[in-house]
Amino acid sequence: MSQTPKYTKTKEFFKHNRSAGGTPTHANQYHRVPMIFLINQNNLREKGTSTSENSTQSEEDQLKTEKYNKIYRDHLIQTYQSLKFVKELRPVDLQQLRAKRVTIPRRKGYEYKKTVIFDLDETLVHCCEDSSIEPTIILPIHFITGEVIEAPICVRPYALECLKQVSKHYEVIVFTASHQSYADAVLDYLDSEREIIHHRFYRQHCVFMDGIYIKDLRIFANRKIKDMIIVDNFAHSFAYQLDNGIPIISWVDYEHDKELQGLMHYLKKLVQVDDIRETNKKVFSLRTFVEEFNRETCKNHFVFNKEDLI
Ligand SMILES: [Mg+2]
């Protein structure tokens, strides 16, 4: 008989099992990361420096704007930290990479399609550790030890719509640094028929470098790097293929979140290009992000606390 699962137990589980996949420079802090291509410099101003445009907003709208501004600022800081980590990262351990290589079958109708690889936590769903938040569903997670816990899961706005839409034009993979038992429970809930998520990869498929789980796209032996896009709230997750990455905002509980809508629009455009890296690197500039960020911060265009950037 399994014990009655408790939310606190779920929280403990995640604390012990997911920390190594977190932010490299602030392992205990939680950061949120919006998509850079939604950039709007007005969002970077400090709270309280509201513009005349803002003064005409209702109180509710102002709160919404402030919340989004905070998420946006946290995103920039998180991405900065992630990319600073990437700069120092050692080349991948080839032995480890070779051991992770997999050949994945092509579905009928998807033989020539490009591949979109979604992260799971804080990209498509969030495990609501805060018991004040109403989860979309509570899922039992069965571990090989025989232990069962219940995980309260919140599904990100537009997640299902996005997966359905994207799976019409792309092969869809979910690649998570979380444990398989947890991920499968969530993915079975999102896609019980296995129609919109074609393949699943988990923590055991990540390479573990400098204390971080990294999703190296070279593990997919029979896919071309130029045809793969990876969407992840942590930029360091795709450290070895920065040009393939979309650093989407981390999602926790922002009910007005529309990042996946923006993503659908962007992916629609990307489906036509020959090498997705060429377009993607122009949009996100992740290779030069740290230098540009430093330059702009020095010019005082962006206002951040210095300790956030260490
Ligand atoms: Mg994530």
General description of the model:
The chain is an alpha/beta fold and 310 residues long. The protein has one domain (7-309): Rossmann fold, CATH 3.40.50.1000. The chain is 34% helix and 14% strand. It is built from 9 helices and 10 strands. The strands form 3 sheets. The chain has a 5-stranded parallel sheet with strand order 6-5-1-9-10. Strand 3 (137-142) and strand 4 form a beta hairpin. It is globular and about 55 Å long. Mean pLDDT is 80; it is low at 1-53. Bound molecules: magnesium ion. Magnesium ion binds at residues 119, 121-123, 232-234.
Q: How are strands sequenced across the largest beta sheet? A: 6-5-1-9-10
Q: Give, in order, the helices and strands.
A: HHHHEEEEHEHEEEEEHHH
So what's the CATH class? Alpha Beta
Helix count equals 9
Residue fraction in strands: 5-15%
Q: Give the distance, in angstroms, between the N- and C-terminal Cα atoms.
A: 48 Å
Unreliable stretches covering 5 or more consecutive residues: 1-53
Number of domains in the coordinates?
1
Shape: globular
So, the CATH homologous superfamily?
Answer: HAD superfamily/HAD-like
| CATH fold label | Rossmann fold
Kindly state the number of beta strands. 10
CATH architecture: 3-Layer(aba) Sandwich
Report the sheet with the most strands, covering strand number, pairing sense and barrel closure.
Answer: 5 strands, parallel
InterPro entries: Dullard_phosphatase (IPR011948), FCP1_dom (IPR004274), HAD-like_sf (IPR036412), HAD_sf (IPR023214), TIM50 (IPR050365)
GO molecular function: phosphatase activity
Protein name: FCP1 homology domain-containing protein
Region (Disordered): 1-27
